[in-house]
Amino acid sequence: RNHPQWIGHAFQAGRNHTWKYIVCEEPTEKPRSYALLVRVQRDQQNSTPESLTGKVMLYLPKDDRAARLQPGDTIWAAKLPTLIEPPKNPGERNWQQAQLMKGITHRLYLQADEYRSARCKKFSVQKKLSLLRERLLSILRENISDPTALGLAQALLIGYRQDLDPTLSRSYSNTGVIHIIAISGMHLALIGGLLNWCLHPFTRWRPIKRLAQLLVLAGLWIFSLLAGGAPSLLRATLLFSSVAMGEIIDRKGNSLNTLMVSALLLLCYDPFWLWDLGFQLSFAAVGGILLIGRYTSRLLSHNKIWWHAPGQLVAISIAAQLFTTPISLYQFHQFPGAFLLGNLVAVPLSSIILAALLLLLICCPVPMVAIPLGSGIAFLIEIMNRYIQWVESLPGLLITDLHWSLPETLLLFATILLASHWIINKSRSACHLTLLLSCLLLGWQGWHRYQQKNQRLLVVYHLPGTTAIDLVTGTLCQSWTDSGAKNNYIDIGSNLRAARRTWGIQKTLSLPKGQQLNLGSKKILLPDKHRVPPTRDTTTIDLLVIGRNAPYRGEKWVCRKRIGTAVLDGSVGARTRERWIALLDSMAIPIHDTKINGAFVSSFR
Fold first, then answer.
1. What is the per-residue pLDDT across 146-155, written as a single tens digit (0 to 9) for each?
2. What is the arithmetic mean of pLDDT over 391-409?
3. In CATH, what class is 7-122?
């Protein structure tokens, strides 16, 4: 944003320009629109378009024209994008920061008559990969008829998640096996193994063996780009490439060093990947496996031959889960206690399904083989889905609503590393430091719980179309929402849950409906155009909340009253908002506008 060619500066200076947008990724289908990531050029008349830094998230209406757009295509529009806003409510995810890490600072909503588009006629590797990806998806659609199985197969093969059932995705996340539908090392191991098997007859001569290994590497990189080039996938590809290059030049390296080098190379390419969740989870999981995987494997080893494969899987699952737990607690606020049960079946079964999907791509020209194979894949996916849903239904295995701050996350990471060093290497100093950090972590959590039990907060949320008020007393929440909450229940519920999780709420009660709330010695007035204004007296009103049902003219509601603070929430219409702001300014009443300042949070006693 400090760059002189940043799109934000250009938008301010050139309001009357026509803007040229180059499509960077395929359209992503949303409930009511298509979302496209685009880069911006200023389309100057009679001159070469000026390239700018920064990207825009573009939203187009759902029609055939938007669905056919591909990377490299051009869109012209005169409408100016708007900055992505910071979070307005406590506990809400910071989408502005998350998108900024991807270089996206603006968004733009266009109607069908507000833009023009044109096909890209130049050769583009990205476009060719997009066409190849669409061809692979069409093969799956032709041979797998069940929509749920098809969505999972697309995600499992090339990471395409647009058709994945959200409920099913949540089940996989709650059981700790979401990693199997995130393209990662398991996919590359299978594809690399398949390519090695195909090229094995040609590897008897040393020069041809090296050429075969280079062909395998080329195949892995093509697959990585085909699957979108996510940081977790590129990490696995770089690891495989490093190991393969070591074999080509007859050198063997340290696995942990190789992991660190791959991280360094990826961060040199894009430093903001350090904040990418997939990058963090991928490197934490592999780092855990490399650091303590051998120890847990030896600990769980048994001389029974039937236990060897399950024991290895359990050991790797424990190592990976242990090192990804701090990130999961911080990002998802939950711990999947069923991860061992889920991984024991899902990992081997998903490997079989992935191998079958690769076989389906080879056999697709022969319908007599491809159609039965597709039915078999759908059957295996159905078995895996039902097992995961059964594991999810087991009571007490999913621990939710865990509020974990960034300092606590870093402290937990340090504790896990020191504890691993203590147990594996019998280090006395690591033992002392582990106990010290554990006490510090427990003390931190205890102090946080103490603060939660003694908190008293009054919150007016910023929710478009709805007025919502929470009175927080310790871990008890008394809530007031208007009838508009029913129209947008899911979004409102997620915002309220995120805020209440931040404050450690354990029980929620509903406050009685009415235009006036009495909270101890505090009085809250909610003007309602459907009700009769209160009498004109000198009553003291601590908080005046202007919400969705507020009348256009508010003089009768505030006349002669002593008002402490007025809050305009996100449900107020534009004209009503302007009218109330003018009225309150004329009466010198302090105003908190949630549209500008975010949710109103006040501590009271």
1. 999 999 999 8
2. 88
3. mainly beta
